[in-house]
Amino acid sequence: MDFVKELQDLRNLDWTDTKAAPGTPGCFLKAYEEKDGQKYYYKLSNYDSCRGVFGHECVNELIVSRLLDILKVEHLPYQLIHAVISIDGQETETYMTRSAGFRKERERKQPLDIYYELNRRKDEKPLDFVRRMGWADYFNRMMAVDYLICNRDRHGANIEILADEYDAARPAPLFDHGLSLLFSCYFDTAEMQKFDVFADRPVQSFIGSKSLEYNLRFLPVDQRIFGGTLEESHRDGLLGDLDTVLPKECLDKIWEMIWGRWNRYVQICNQK
Length: 272
Hints:
CATH class of the largest domain: Mainly Alpha
Distance between the termini: 28 Å
Number of strands: 12
Largest sheet: 7 strands, mixed
Helix content: 25-40%
């Protein structure tokens, strides 16, 4: 079950760990807990001391997680939880994501930007580096996914490399997709209705260019890179149970974005 609708009491979580939200006012709060030897990670949508928790980045994480299941892309599964929490002594009812750790035993993780600086050749660009490392398929899928969801935040620390004690390295499953879809509209219905789902918005992108659409040029043509295919019938599976969390205008626009961008991706890259 990836969506826990029944209100949970998670006032025990400690939200003192913060992460700045690039390009948005506020920050993302994180919490951790360990159960039966497994570490779990919790993250809220945007937060500031005046408005409390606001936005819907956490819902985006669930939607993208479902999309990646359909496309059969390795990723960190997210669970959306409806809960009451306590921040600085103030109780609030909100939604959050929960995920489990993805490192195998004895693996260590390192952000891609740091790994690249330590291991690149002279004058080697990030895209050339990951191709040399044998990770082209992984990054082809990542760039295609980021185009589909209009992900504006794939900086070098939002991609991790996992290495074992023998220094055998692999990219971590895709994670952290909150600043995507309609995140910048928050719950402004007018903004949602006029939102251009095909606009090539400025992005933080460590691999490729700062244009998601231009990045499609780096993808192979006539070569399928996803294990699954998106169909119109998938709409309900992606969004059908989220009508109590997001307004209809937002859900409609999110589907318009994902389905429209999927068809443009297929047309440009001749992939399905």
